[in-house]
Amino acid sequence: MEEGLPTVELLESIHTFPCEYRFKVIGQADDHFVGRVLAAVRQELEEDSEPRFSTRTTTGGRHVSVTVEPTMETASHVIAVYSRLRDLEGLVMLL
């Protein structure tokens, strides 16, 4: 298990897979952060299309929150997506 990530056991005790899972990713509001988030999720899940998502920019415009809600097949996939998202350039917080 990677430090700071949920365990498979915890995820399976809270969710029934497959299910829609919500990732909240907060980062610097540059022109490409949202695209990097979506690309990371798509690549990890090997999807051609973007999952359902929404964005919200802070009042000052310095940060953007990206909520991504893909269908996750297993708890292991959730952990893999978290691992990929943690490496994003411009990441401030991952929930």
From TrEMBL:
Q: Spell out the GO cellular component terms annotated for this protein, sorted alphabetically and separated by semicolons.
A: cytosol
**Classification via InterPro entries:** UPF0250_YbeD-like (IPR007454), YbeD-like_sf (IPR027471)
Identify one Pfam family in the record: DUF493
Kindly give the Gene3D superfamilies that the UniProt entry links to this protein.
3.30.70.260
Assigned protein family:
Belongs to the UPF0250 family.
**Which protein is depicted?**
Uncharacterized protein
Q: Which organism is it from?
A: Thalassoglobus neptunius
Record lineage:
Bacteria, Pseudomonadati, Planctomycetota, Planctomycetia, Planctomycetales
